[in-house]
Amino acid sequence: MAGIDESLNFKPVRIAVLVVSDTRTMETDTSGQTLADRLTEAGHVLADRKIVIDDRQLVRQAVQSWIADPKVDAVITSGGTGLTGRDVTVEALTPLFDKVIDGFSAVFHQVSFQTVGLSTLQSRAVAGLAGSTFVFCLPGSTGAVKDGWDQILKYQLDSRYRPCNMVELMPRLTEV
């Protein structure tokens, strides 16, 4: 049965959080704060946290710097995954992916459907592997961030989750 095996040791993951928004500041950013709080409460390390405006180049630069940093294992973004003209996170980041994690989007939409119904169609949540760094792109709402973390990432970034998790893959991500 799937779940946390308490007999195993927990291995913290170093996670950077990027919020993509034209209007939020560190003081008003509930989505980024929710991610930061949840991941540290789970025992992970908040490697960095930034807010950038909805600009393709700025989004890409922020994430590229973390991909290049050996002290960052995973990046979670919030915002810019919708359908409007200013939503550019997907376009900015998918070219960086060496591999797309198709299942993330599929599972995110299943989880999101339980919360927002058919409105989940308006999200382009996506994930991929860039070098040896996992990149997860969530919508900008605090509810979507909670769904993504509480129902998916909290488990897949926990080394004790069985039958398998993404943490156990980390040492093998750069195999040739």
Structure description:
The structure is a single chain. The protein has 176 residues and is of the alpha/beta class. It has a single domain (8-169), classed as Molybdenum Cofactor Biosythetic Enzyme, Chain A. The chain has five helices and eight strands, in the order ββαβαβαβαββαβ. The chain has helices at 30-41, 56-67, 89-93, 102-116, 142-156; strands at residues 3-4, 14-20, 45-52, 74-78, 99-100, 126-130, 133-138, 161-162. The strands form two sheets. A six-stranded mixed sheet has the order 3-2-4-7-6-5, sandwiched between helices. The protein has a two-stranded antiparallel sheet with strand order 1-8. The longest helix has 15 residues, at 102-116. The N and C termini lie far apart (32 Å). The mean pLDDT is 97.
The string of secondary-structure elements, in order, is EEHEHEHEHEEHE
Q: Name the overall outline.
A: globular
The main sheet comes to: 6 strands, mixed
Structural class: alpha/beta
Poorly predicted runs of 5 or more residues: none
- The appropriate CATH architecture is 3-Layer(aba) Sandwich
Q: What is the CATH H-level superfamily? A: MoaB/Mog-like domain
The number of helices is 5
Mean pLDDT, all residues: 97
Strand content: 15-25%
Percentage of residues in helical conformation: 25-40%
Which strand order does the major sheet show?
3-2-4-7-6-5
Find the count of extended strands (DSSP E, 2+ residues): 8
Outline of the structure:
With 176 residues, the chain is an alpha/beta fold. The chain has helices at residues 30-41, 56-67, 89-93, 102-116, 142-156, and strands at 3-4, 14-20, 45-52, 74-78, 99-100, 126-130, 133-138, 161-162. It has a six-stranded mixed β-sheet with strand order 3-2-4-7-6-5, with helices on both faces. It has a two-stranded antiparallel ribbon with strand order 1-8.
